[in-house]
Amino acid sequence: MSYLEYTVKTTPSGLRKVLYFNWALAILLTAVAGVGFLMLYSVAGGSFSPWAEPQMKRFALGFVGMVVIAMVPIWFWRNMSALAYIVSILLLIAVEFAGAHGKGAQRWLDLGFMRLQPSELMKISLVMALAAYYDWLPMARTSRPLWVLIPVILILLPVALVLRQPDLGTSILLITGGGVLMFLAGVHWAYFAVVIAAIGGMVTAVFQSRGTDWQMLADYQYRRIDTFLDPASDPLGAGYHITQSKIALGSGGWTGRGFMQGTQSRLNFLPEKHTDFIFTTLAEEFGFIGAVSLLALYALIVVFCVSSALANRDRFASLLTLGIAVTFFLFFAVNMSMVMGLAPVVGVPLPLVSYGGSAMLILMLGFGMVQSAHIHRPR
Amino acid sequence: MRRPSRDTAESQRRITRRSLFLGGGMTAMVGALALRMRYLQVEQADQFRLLADENRINIRLIPPSRGRIFDRNGMTVAENVPSYRITMLREEAGDVENVLARLSQLVDLDPEELERARRDLERLRADTPVTVAERVSWADISRVAVNTPALPGVTPEVGLSRRYPHGEAYAHVVGYVGPVSDRDLEKLDAPDALLLIPRFQIGKIGLEAEREDMLRGEAGTKRVEVNAAGRVMRELNRQEGISGTDIQITLDNALQTYTHARLAGESAATVVMDCETGDLLACASSPSFDPNLFVRGISVADYKALLDDEYRPLPNKAVQGIYPPGSTFKMVVALAALEDGQVDLTETVYCPGHLEVSGRRFHCWKRGGHGNVDLHRSIRESCDVFYYEMAMRVGIEKISAMARRLGLGQAFDLPMTSVAAGLTPTKDWKIVNRGAEWVIGDSVNAAIGQGFVLASPLQLAVMSARLATGREVMPRLIKSVDGVEAPSGRGNGLGLNENNLREVRKAMYAVSNNRRGTAYSSRIIEDAFRMAGKTGTSQVRNISSGERASGVRRNSDLPWRQRDHALFVNFAPFDNPKIAVAVVVEHGGGGSTAAAPIARDITLQALYGEDPPLAAYPTKDRGRIKTQQEKLRQYRPGAPGEESDRA
User: Fold this and answer.
1) Model-level pTM?
2) Could you tell me what percentage of chain A is helix, strand and coil, using 3-state DSSP and rounding each to the nearest 5?
3) Is the same domain home to B77 and B152?
């Protein structure tokens, strides 16, 4: 059987869809968000305001959004892919002109009822667009240069726009997420090998050129790299965040200081304690056990998505689910690496836990599509 | 629209294969994260927990309150008053200039202080509080406190600051405190942590500096939990410091302030000693300065004015100033000659007005000469020729030895800055220091307290007290520390022949009470308080033979700097000596006209303990003294009949 027909018969309809919901995934997402509420409550010094309460409302909204999207057949979303991508690109361009500034970067559009970060929307739209592209592209052409170039452009266009904001964290997520999706779609190994080798060569060249006449970066950029490699060299300057973050994490020990007993985050040693660095509060208060538990929850979410994707014979649904899982994975992996001093500090939030409106909403919409793919999978 | 998906089987195989590969990568990544967590949270936990506590807990020093200083009757000489100041933290302020601009709209900031604050803000670490304004009024502090939300990094603080309620009167003895300077720190090997507190006040000169160790006290500590900005969130515990020790000095506030007022307008110094105990009752140097100016950091203009003043207000002339003692040295030579048996009380020396010594002519101050002079008369009328003769008989070694027995030529161990040793020359001294042999002319000069001989007003007062009592009276400035009385300076007998001493005292009595005495015009006529004294006039320039031939120029015709120093030493009452006084008026002219009247006024003031009755003065002086007393009362805050000035 070379083709598979979706039939109304094999696909649940109406309210019966709820029965086919991936409940395990929904529960895991809620559990992670719950950890987030606890931490935001703790960071605020035992108060629902200013962070925990709005975060809970947004999660509720996001959860409803996820259910609604899950009810809509996956093929509708496949047909919406191109539109979503184009709208996202337009919004990114709009941010360039009408965006509001936050922390020195133009990132969001004020829609009145919420602040929309088009770069967040782009993460999902790009996954949709690439999944739809490879769903449409005959397998045989996947590795042909011209057909490889198109997704590369699809990826680099939003990356260029996001970099202009500037938002290095999101750019890296977009490139890596897009690249992984291309890999999953079956683009030939050699392309990736060449790109990785080229990046390796660039990095080597950048370091080798330091102090020579053809130095490739400005001095201050090298110093930033130095600070990343050895935060202790500038403990009160650029290395401050990462040093303090490690102190907070490390002081947690096996079981932590106990809920609401963290000293480092409460006393403001940590910057961004309620957003990008919220993991340190968890690690300080609940220790190694708490931190590994959260890591396990995240890993389980990815596992459930991947297994759902592998069980799905629809190419778009499968790629989309994997793409969202990878994006989600990259979120928490980069964030954790960052706060643990394994990666430079780039602004990447801890998914579902960090305080932040559009990131959580959009992630929930993404999981709505994962649910839709799961419900409407061919049987 | 629905359509079939393509290449399903092949697609699914490929996706599965690559997913597994990817899954491996993701698993590795999760494993790496978990391992990193384990490393940070388990293996290095102890280290990080320690770091966290260091982060969180800050040990702050609590500055102790400085020991106070009281006079012999318990009057406050140096105290601590609450002072409000405004400090600023650069790391919290952010835009320093902007915040300073806003602050200056609320409070008048001294431009000089502001400039210093700007420098400190730039130079010091961002988390070091820098004092922007000191001694701020309560109203200003409240205004700043109300506006703190608009003034990031600005904190109104209350601390203790030193205050000298009597201003100028004690400036030289007690000295002053000031903010620790880098130079102060360099001098110390292991500075007390307290000194690292910016603008911490330490003694700079005088008693404040000499007894810094007692007065400072010990810092207390408090452990506070701070946030990342260094702001104190709560206090964990505190250990109070130990306040500095209170010191009571021997000076008598009434006499000290009187003395200071009496010397006003002169470049002069006075020391009043209790003959019995050696207590310094007054120790004044004029002109003086307001030590309170230094506490907050004196302005460059004020400091320059003090430095440029020809009368030199800054040094303590009473103990630092050394002068040729002039004729006040004659008691030393007389006693040396008597003790050595080189002269007896009946022998006379003929004074023709000069004496030829190895081809050089030494003059007596009285050009016509005194005629036949015995020892008594030589002191009473201050005949120079008699002492030229004595010096040749006795020799410099014995004269200087006697001078040292009487308290000259040695630095007394008193807690004041640069207590001078003066100079009682010897033959060896001249060879070492001047590279020349001692010649007889040197002895002749020394005989009348000129030449190499140098003494401070303090030493002259000690000499006077020792002559009066015959004991080795030692000066004392600290009466008690923390309520414990310091040892008295009474001293043992000097071992001098009592008859010789009595004759010298009698001659000194005659100086002040005999019609022919050089200080007769400055006598005391109250019988119970009669004084014995000796005038001195020391030359500060050479009189050439040409000038001598054409007539020595009068002091009033000379520029101030070239005029003679006027000196007077005395003790009183004559029959039961209580106090010894030395007065030096720099370039004041003659000892009998410039120094003796001051000494008499101070003596009477000391003996009566208040303004003396006019009956104690000779009739013809009374009108003038009355006016003078009224005038001086205005200068002395806290004098009887005046509202005490506590501002």
Assistant:
1) 0.62
2) 65, 5, 30
3) yes
